[in-house]
């Protein structure tokens, strides 16, 4: 079975995959898998761009996002216009999709689009026409950083064991696997309030409500970062030699957070 493996850490936001999809499908008829994609409005492969945090502690992260080519696709259960090939690629039949705008709602991942000009629903085909010829999907082929890969499931067994899928609670068993998906962070700066100088090497301990602890140290700019966090409530303890310990209780984390300066007193 074919799978996609996406390493978000390797994506630099060049939008090459999104452009490659347009290059392959706009004005090109790849029947029986797809009629031409319109110039605008469709993103069979798109890059989700998200800004995490607040100035000056900010990360900009990119996540390639397309059809998940699920092993148990919800769309196939809703309409016979969708079908799954033996290699696992999920296809929306262009003929059966004609005039059926309701098919846009068949995918819980929101990757089915409506083509007003052709009066059909459309989606990513995994470039099935290229795969049939032993080639890679165009988005994968043109990915400059290796963030996108495609091939047999056995080929990527090691990566799949460490990977995540989008919205696993849906039970659709996506066959697009993600490494290094963006997580949340807590960041800030430690400083000496009296001397108005940063404090390097302060020990910071972050504890979640389950009692799991993470440690970090302030760097030579007084900055600290706790990365790869899940939403929740945290307690932060700051310790530095010669300074009074500072404790910040009930840090509510729903989005990445710059908690700002933490003043310490001797």
Automatic annotation (TrEMBL):
<dbReference type="InterPro" id="IPR050954">
    <property type="entry name" value="ET_IronSulfur_Cluster-Binding"/>
</dbReference>
<dbReference type="InterPro" id="IPR017896">
    <property type="entry name" value="4Fe4S_Fe-S-bd"/>
</dbReference>
<keyword id="KW-0479">Metal-binding</keyword>
<dbReference type="GO" id="GO:0018706">
    <property type="term" value="F:pyrogallol hydroxytransferase activity"/>
</dbReference>
<dbReference type="Pfam" id="PF13247">
    <property type="entry name" value="Fer4_11"/>
</dbReference>
<protein>
    <submittedName>
        <fullName>Pyrogallol hydroxytransferase small subunit</fullName>
        <ecNumber>1.97.1.2</ecNumber>
    </submittedName>
</protein>
<feature type="domain" description="4Fe-4S ferredoxin-type">
    <location>
        <begin position="2"/>
        <end position="31"/>
    </location>
</feature>
<keyword id="KW-0411">Iron-sulfur</keyword>
<keyword id="KW-0004">4Fe-4S</keyword>
<keyword id="KW-0560">Oxidoreductase</keyword>
<keyword id="KW-0408">Iron</keyword>
<dbReference type="Pfam" id="PF13620">
    <property type="entry name" value="CarboxypepD_reg"/>
</dbReference>
